[in-house]
Amino acid sequence: MSVVHRLTAGWLVDHLSFINQCGYEICDSFACPGGVTLNTSVTSTEDCHGSSACVATSSSSSGPTHSPEDATETEGKTAKMRYVFREEFFDVSKPHIVAPPEGQLCQGCPKMSLTEIKSNMDFFFHYLLILQKRKRKCLFNQGEQDALEYHSRVRKMIWEGTLHLVQEGLKSGFLHQTTAELDCRKNNVPVVCGLAELCEMAKQFPAVNEGDHQAVYVLEDETSSPDQDLLSCVTENTSNHAKIIVLMGQKYLVPPKSSFLLSDISCLQPLLNYKKKYDVIVIDPPWENKSVKRSNRYSHLSSWQIKQIPVPTLAAPNCLVVTWVTNRQKHLHFVKEELYPHWSVKTLAEWHWVKITRAGEFVLPLDSLHKKPYEVLVLGRVQGDVKEALRKSEGVLPIPEHKLIVSIPCTLHSHKPPLTAVLAEFIKPDVECLELFARNLQPGWTSWGNEVLKFQHIDYFTLLQKE
């Protein structure tokens, strides 16, 4: 189970377990036992406009090689291969920054006023130095003041709720106060081809007449398709086992019963053509901030661009909308006061994702001024037909105003914890779910984004067994 413990405060979640329960087992009926798969992919910039041939490609570069005799012997048989996500990407054994003894989780939650929080911040003197350099008269600007006031309201709830969940995790053995170091290839992060750049390239494809073009491309073992299909329509894996697709020579695992659209925000029409209405929509926007602008590592969208996302068109009546928000109060206010009203979504709750180590410590001091060990989720429901809303809410619990999702975070940037299990008691089974700005896939979900396959890259996984 991805939910290890469930308490009144929230859930202790095992993110790694959730990924590995998605069913990354490949059932391959081809002659070669090495996991041959069709290359339905773009293989180079020059041949982007061409159709892919039926090319046999090994599904794992790390597996043993096989001779032609092996292939002859296994012809007609089904080879099974199981992949698991690499454990080292969840090896958070120590806090990124250690809190002073009086601020550590195991010491209990001291009651502190806003003034005391300011004076006890471990980054306080660091900020004083910055202020001196800026020659700023005011100690905190308005944004920092708002953030401090928000933190003073939620810190006790976060501290106490996390403490109770950590205690349960320690009792059950899921968390360990003394943890052994994993023998990990920590620097062996795969160099993934530029999916965002690939989406940009796709805009140069010749325009396709929508009446002549399929809205869905279904992954099948023994069929090939023009490269353009993976970039101009929703791709589905309708089978009960995972499949491998190849893009730009890179291999990606697609879990069973999942669908995705690889495109950027300017090419959302294929998702609208998919003709599905979603009961749950999770959004992880690429928020605009100064560090992103300076680094140029990640694309970002302005508030105006985020408002243009056609959530009302994609949402079913009474749809539950969940938006990940950074700890900037500007973004939180925008979601609650502008974005949700613009989409006719009523704000219901603020939940917090709390990041801990394998020993149950906050990954950052709770009162750090620089970064917090938690992120915010804003939950709301699409407003519409009252009778339809009542019908859809029958048999499910109302959304609680405050909940914690406590987990060991993935060390890969923006790999958020799964919400499937924690939302299960608040939605009906077998509903349609959509994730926008996704970077990975989930069974039973439709995912969209210009990096939607990023964490599905086969090098993030280990081939566990072959049969």
From TrEMBL:
Q: Which family does it belong to?
A: Belongs to the MT-A70-like family.
Q: Name one Pfam family in it.
A: MT-A70
Ranges of compositional bias, category Low complexity:
55-66
Kindly state one GO CC term assigned in the UniProt record. cytosol
Biological processes annotated in GO:
methylation
Protein's UniProt name = METL4 protein
Q: Which InterPro entries match?
A: DNA_methylase_N6_adenine_CS, MT-A70-like
Give the span(s) annotated as Disordered: 55-77
